[in-house]
Each structure stands twice: as C-alpha cells, then as structure tokens.
Amino acid sequence: xxxxxTARLDESYTMLGxxxxxxxxxxxxxxxxxxxxxxxxxxxxxxxxxxEGWQVDYEFDDPFPFARTPHxxxxxxxxxxxxxxxxxxxxxGGTGISAxxxxxxxxxxxxxxVFDTPSAAAIAALDRDR
Length: 130
Known about the structure:
With 130 residues, the protein is of the alpha+beta class. Helices cover 14% and strands 30% of the residues. The protein has helices at 51-54, 75-80, 118-125, and strands at residues 4-10, 13-15, 21-22, 25-32, 45-46, 58-60, 89-92, 97-101, 107-108, 113-115. The chain has a six-stranded antiparallel beta sheet with strand order 3-2-10-9-8-7, covered by helices on one side. Strands 5-4-1-6 form a four-stranded mixed beta sheet, with no helix packed on it. Strand 7 (89-92) and strand 8 form a beta hairpin. The radius of gyration is 15 Å and the shape is elongated. The model has no long low-confidence stretch (mean pLDDT 91).
C-alpha cells in the first residue's frame, strides 16, 4: 500500500478531414491507497474498488497490485454491441462539452480532433495538461 504504479494513456488523435495523426502517449503515476482514501475519479490515486475502471483506457506497468481486467471495452465494442450508434453525442458530465461517436470507433470533439479513448477525449476537452 502507498507505493506508486505507472500507467500510460494513449492521447493520440486524428484531425478530421486531414488524416493527420498526432501521437501522444502520456505517463501517469498513481498512488496505491485503501478504498477509503481513494478519490476514484482523479488520476492521483487508485484502489481495489477503482482499479478495474482505470484499466479501460490506461495500460499499467508491472508490477500491478490488482487483478488485470480481462477485456478492455472500446467505443467500437459499444457500437458493435448496439449500446452506441455512429453520430451519438456523448456529453462530459457537468461541462456541456460533447463528443460525437465516429464510424471509426472514435470520439470527435467540436474542434475536429478524433480520439481513440474516452479518457483522452475528456482530458483534451477539458484542456488539461496541454
């Protein structure tokens, strides 16, 4: 407990209409804490209760003190399963910022950047760490 683990988030994106691909992989450090000390929704801490959720978009280095998620669901998986449709707008809770589901399985922000993962789209939408 209280050790740190490193994860990588693929924040790469494509510019709509140009096919220009911008590759950006960002390393994040998480402190392993007990559930009652974990913020769960910020990228500074991780616990047994939220470890599975963080693995949706983040690739964690070994050693990783939690169970590995067997399948990482993607936007494409949700489209294929009927939970999302191309053209659906997803709004980032409490912000009014929307991303549109693309035919490639990405999320397009209003400025035309298409991200492969929800976390990368959210970080870009909030203009964090630019």
